[in-house]
């Protein structure tokens, strides 16, 4: 146990480091990332016109660059570039120096183009946080810069099929995270580095004079003992853990069939799905018509970015219009650490979880490394977009009764997951973005149960990063200390959603607070509460309509949910009952919808899901 705690402490420390690292560089991403892409665009010749159709810099909407061909953002509505994937586009030019302005970049794939010239000797300054660098199949020449060894987050480095000459820097042996390296088909000589993973000879094939390690030993006079690795070993657990986390963001590169593709709108990874199109989508309901991956591809225009309706830490969601006119939502999961068997078993569990306030999972599909989930389509999108539209006037269209109905329904769904489902399901990712709204504005939770499909550490890390770091957004404070997901953690996140509903403010940025206030919505509420001024937090458009009493009660429930002490927070069952009482006069819950908490203790539940009581 002591050991575990120490381990956890390191994880937290590691996360903090990363947050500081990324936030100091990334949080003001917008202007600089746009400049980055402009500079890259201007520095390349694009004879096949892959970029000029979608790379439209006149669209000033936040997140417009995320629809550019080959660009993946941290969040689709935020112009902060996560990965640049411009493989096989016939681009001409040199290594794009503009990349230095993409300050949150974690992956760069320029493979299969006609880029030439040498790499900058200070290349690590340009791609400091990159975990995957693929420059293979180009005409780069000159030495491989030893400064690349300073890109300490690198997992994969692919420089094969170029004209690099000279020696491979032995410092690469200090890269603690690297697990894939290739320099085949270049003009390299001399000893090869001693890596910590077992590298195949093929990674060095077709070079005129490489030797050492897995290759034949070097001529004695040039024998260099690679003692360099000792220093790097001190990097320690912390670093390794950070790196493990970062690795998550790299959507592992699939073997791209090197073929020119002409539809600039379809996604490149989707093209590589050729040969798997006949794969059947497994449906949970026999009544739903049979479909194959090909149908899904057709329905989403090959998972075109134009069909993307959202994306989060679990993966991107696409609107799929089937040939019979039915509309579905298809979620493409981010790299899951689970085996196919574990995935299937998890799917069959989730497929049987049914409640009127959860988005129905209709089916799933596994093809090569890709995993897709098929959900019912929710016509009114997510709550976040209703509460925080780009035009603030629109937000007012969500009247109080509708907000209350949404709160009650969502609380009911979550309470059901916590108290009526055996084994209990923790959501772990509650936010206004995962509360979807149907035609009637009845709320349905999405993304439940998916956190378990991911690697636990990675999932936490991405919570921090995606959840807009600095103040942790929806994440309960004890989560950062313990990294244990608990029902009370869900209650905290849900409380944040309640605060969003009643204040109309975003969880991380409070527009009504004084300029000097830099904290989160929860912190702002705490401050107002200290000053006995909670009432001023309420969305002005809701006041003076005869419901002020309901508003005060609602705000009180929200405040209890976000109490810093988990013990002081109500259970989801209690939250549901409290909200239901506030909304009694509206008769939202007509039928016999009284929920009974079937279990009140943690007895009988798998230890993984048990709350660590403070
Ligand atoms: C782009 O990067 C250069 C070099 O680091 C820097 O001087 C410039 O300020 C950056 N531009 C923006 C808009 O951040
Ligand atoms: C894009 O580039 C291609 C090839 O250079 C050209 O034929 C096409 O007209 C360009 N389209 C636009 C919108 O600029
Ligand atoms: C600008 O980008 C936004 C977000 O990507 C998109 O919804 C909108 O349609 C675009 N506008 C134009 C004129 O292309
Ligand atoms: C790079 O290729 C272009 C033609 O695509 C050529 O004009 C230029 O001289 C090449 N530069 C180098 C450094 O080889
Ligand atoms: C890399 O070095 C060159 C000169 O050697 C310098 O002009 C450039 O600013 C440096 N780039 C960065 C990102 O530090
Ligand atoms: C890495 O960076 C450090 C300091 O930032 C510098 O002293 C060192 O020379 C760099 N290493 C390489 C291989 O460029
Ligand atoms: C290979 O590298 C050597 C120097 O290391 C150079 O003399 C030779 O021209 C290079 N060959 C090619 C094809 O680039």
Task: Note down, in words, how this protein is organized.
With 614 residues, the chain is of the alpha/beta class. It has three domains: 24-211, Ribonuclease Inhibitor (Leucine-rich repeat, LRR (right-handed beta-alpha superhelix), Alpha-Beta Horseshoe), CATH 3.80.10.10; 268-376, 2-Layer Sandwich (Phosphorylase Kinase, domain 1); 383-609, Transferase(Phosphotransferase) domain 1 (Transferase(Phosphotransferase), domain 1). 29% of the residues lie in helices and 14% in strands. The chain is built from 16 helices and 20 strands. The strands form four sheets. It has a six-stranded mixed sheet with strand order 1-2-4-6-8-10. A six-stranded parallel sheet has the order 3-5-7-9-11-12, with no helix packed on it. The protein has a six-stranded antiparallel sheet with strand order 13-17-18-16-15-14, with helices on both faces. The model is unreliable at 1-28, 221-265, 455-472 and 597-614 (pLDDT under 50). It binds 2-acetamido-2-deoxy-beta-D-glucopyranose (7 copies). The site of one 2-acetamido-2-deoxy-beta-D-glucopyranose has 3 residues, from strand 5. One 2-acetamido-2-deoxy-beta-D-glucopyranose binds next to helix 2.
